[in-house]
Amino acid sequence: MTIRLRAHHLLCLLTYVGKGYSPAFTANYDRVAERLSRGEDILLVSGPDDVCAPLLDEPEPHCLNESVVERDRLATQDVGELLARPIRVGTRLDLDAAMLGRMRQAFSAGLVRKACGGCEWNELCSTIAAGCYSDTLVQRSASPGEG
């Protein structure tokens, strides 16, 4: 199967430790993290994705706000520069151990953090990065022949 993610969630998954907006959101994100850890590929989408799903029943889901769309735009730029390839809606990514490590290293160095400005989770994510991502739920082991 394929996991549908909006661009800024490529950054959020780097530091996800099981905390979120609500119990339903967290339970859903736990399932997404497990799927990513098993190696399911990612399809970049515009707007609400598999992570956002539990929030869509709210009267005014924040995932529809223009500020979130701007986070996606900034994340697309940063991740595209990091990977040295165009990243846009419809792009498929295989988050292998090497890519996950590279993205986490860039996140720790502040190279892919433009989308994080003003995010309520920014401080928590910085703490997790400073702790070497030890409690994160998205983990990939190198496969034979992988990085």
Write down the Rg: 14 Å
Number of strands: 3
**Category by helix and strand content:** mainly alpha
Helix content: 40-55%
Please report the distance between the alpha carbons of the first and last residues. 24 Å
Count of runs of 4 or more consecutive helical residues? 5
What's the oligomerization state?
Answer: single chain
Relative strand content: 5-15%
Shape: globular
- Low-confidence parts: none
| Major sheet characteristics | 3 strands, mixed
**Series of secondary-structure elements, N-terminal to C-terminal:** EHHEHEHH
Average predicted confidence as pLDDT: 92
Strand order of the largest sheet: 1-2-3
Report on the structure:
This protein is mostly helical and 147 residues long. It is 42% helix and 7% strand. The chain contains 5 helices and 3 strands, in the order βααβαβαα. It has helices spanning 9-15, 23-38, 66-83, 97-108, 122-130; strands at residues 2-5, 41-44, 92-93. The protein has a 3-stranded mixed β-sheet with strand order 1-2-3, with helices on one face. The longest helix has 18 residues, at 66-83. It is globular, with a radius of gyration of 14 Å. 28% of the residues are buried. The model has no long low-confidence stretch (mean pLDDT 92).
Task: Give the arrangement of secondary structure elements.
Blueprint lengths: L1 E4 L3 H7 L7 H16 L2 E4 L21 H18 L8 E2 L3 H12 L13 H9 L17
Parallel strand pairs: 1-2
Antiparallel strand pairs: 2-3
Short description:
This protein has 147 residues and is mostly helical. Helices cover 42% and strands 7% of the residues.
